[in-house]
Amino acid sequence: MITISKSFEGHLNLNSKVFFSGKFGEGKSHFLNEFFKEKEGQFNVFKVLPVHHSISHNEDIFQYIKAEILFELLKRKVVFDQETFSRLQTAQQFFLNQTPMVFVPFITALSKTGKSIYDVIEPFKKLYDEYEIFHKKIQIDDNKEVYVFLESIVSKSGSIFENDFYTEIIRDQLEKLKSNDSESNNLKQNVLIIEDLDRIDPDHIFRILNVFAAHLDGYFLGNGKDERLNKFGFDKIILVGDINNIREIYKHRYGARVDFNGYINKYFDKKPFEFDSKKHQLDLIGKILHEKGNLTSKSAIELILKDFVYDNLISIRELLKLKDVKSDEVVDFKFEKHFHFYTIKFLLQWIDSYTLFDKITATMNTSLNKLNRFELPNYKHYTMQGFPLLVQQLNDYNLKEKFKLVINDKEFSFNVKNGYDRVYDIDLIEEAGEEITFTKQDFYEVLLQSLEKIKGIAEKS
Question: DSSP strand E in 235-283: where?
Fold first, then answer.
């Protein structure tokens, strides 16, 4: 099964402009943080939060964006260009800029009093300045005039063609960052992530998007020629939000007949990347449990957590708390051979017994949707693994007995034996030709009864 991380990596490789779409609160930011943390040898990531600037004037928004990027560059301790000039070099420039006034002191020295020499020089200087203006004005260079005009536009703060000193610094520093990776010979790519579009007030979201479109996709002067590129030269630009929600806002504001696709298409190259939150949660469960090592009932815990995901009973924030759960090595000796003691002990380190009871009850009352699952769970095995915990007075001295339990009005007969692992194993007694099946409801009924029986002990151990 291809993970959500692999799917996004493939999408990112094929696109320079990406719209990362998913519902609010489903873990988009967490996924991107984890993805680029694992790929830090390949990407330099910069984040912008436009929700901070939503009430600002259009001309100011991009100044704030530049400030955010410069803050990020400073945190990375980049080395900005510094030049030191000799006194000879600065003297030459000073004299060139001050001609002809630089000669006034020398001429004054030739006068006995020095009182009237400035009166002579000042008209001369004025005449010289007027001549310089006339000389430059009379020259004809249409190409130069065009570039002078364009330079006046790109140097104007807030202009969509703005390409001022700070913009050039950002672009230069980003270019340097690509080759500053000492651990690899490969150039790192610079990525700009524009987050939290979901949180922008509907009255401002399209204005903000239009500002980004104007500044990040246009003609800009560079190296003496016009270039079509995003203003700062980022290799990848990722907008994060819920495209379906934005579509509804667009229809409400401009009407259902106005073409939304024509508007939104400029924010991505081919198609939006649809973030599958369930797939991300399932990947996260597998990763966290793998890091836990050899848990006795890991497979059952994984089944339960996946059911919570499929039944929309768990959030990314809750899943991340699983990282704090300890191993199950220390248990009450009375229950050390009971498989689901370890299951419940683990889950009660994660959430309290009341919350766990509610989640189990909710998923038990939800029918198994086979169409949306990547694999069907083996409820039979894990239901039977819970039987020994529900048998009264079970111990190693009476394992030869035949036991009976009633679960959901169905009676089951079985034998208990010591398994190859440290937990009991179960042999189900079936009549000839009979095949006993177990449902999702049977499994969670056994789990609920087990929870009621040992929750106090499990919470303390």
Answer: 236-241, 273-274
Region of 410 please: left (phi>0), alpha (psi -120 to 50) or beta.
Answer: beta
Domain positions in the chain: 4-80+164-274, 278-460
Contact between 373 and 334 (Cβ < 8 Å)? no
Kindly report, residue by residue over 149-167, the tens digit of the pLDDT.
666 656 666 555 566 667 7
Query: Is it true that domain 4-80+164-274 has CATH number 3.30.420?
Result: no
CA dist 82 and 102 (Å) reads 29
Here the tokens at position 329 are: 């090595």
- Rounded CA-CA distance 339/342 in Å is 6
Q: Locate 188 and state its tokens.
A: 């790192």
Token pair for residue 71?
């803050």
- Secondary structure (H, E, C), 152-188: HHHCCCCCCCCCCHHHHHHHHHHHHHHCCCCCCCCCC
Q: Which residues are CB-contacts of 46 (< 8 A; sequence separation ≥ 6)? A: 68, 69, 72, 190, 191, 192, 193, 234
Taking the model in full, what pTM does it have?
0.71
Q: Is 217 exposed, middle or buried (0-12, 13-18, 19+ CB in 10 A)?
A: middle
What's residue 417's pLDDT?
85
Amino acid at site 356: L
